[in-house]
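Entry type: protein chain
Record version: 2
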Amino acid sequence: MWVIDMLIVGIAGGTGSGKTTFAEALQGAMGDNCVIISQDSYYVANTELSFSERLQINYDHPNAFEDELLIEHLRSLRGGASIQVPVYDFETYCRTPHRITVEPRSIVIVEGILVLVNPLLREMFDLKVFVDTDSDVRVLRRLIRDVLERGRTLESVHSQYLKTVKPMHEAFVEPSKKHADLIVPEGGRNQVALETVAAVLRQYLYDGENRLVATAKES
């Protein structure tokens, strides 16, 4: 297996922090050279469990994610192979039979609340970013998202936040900030940080093109 010239960026942050917005803004700046992979796609399948059993799972704990599969997929992309990313259904709390094909790109962005927690996953990232946003803002964003986009009730969002989201944020998400190369306040709304990271990525693409030209001339 040959290894392609690829930069893998990990973007972490609490729920509703704006990390997805930040990742999408970077992708928009990079165009076809960039692809985003969400850690949410790698929730453990749990297809063998009943709906009521799936409701009892702590989805904000590191064990809720199949990091091994994500790591395997990132290695495959770096090796030049396409991957089949799982599709997760947030209304049923279960992985679906569908898959999305993702081809290798020069820049791969992996975003998720816990992507900087697992040291084996962390090792896959060439650049590690943590999006840091006030807790009040984050909880309001999560409330709106879960009710409007994921079919949740106000009561269920409130209960889940107090039972798992807040304590898991304090136990795992917030401490993972120490592993970041760059901490971004206010997520996708931080235009200065966005332009700074985009400039780093553009320089990487520019250097890669120069390496290809130099190799072609040598041969």
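Comment: The chain has one domain: 7-218.
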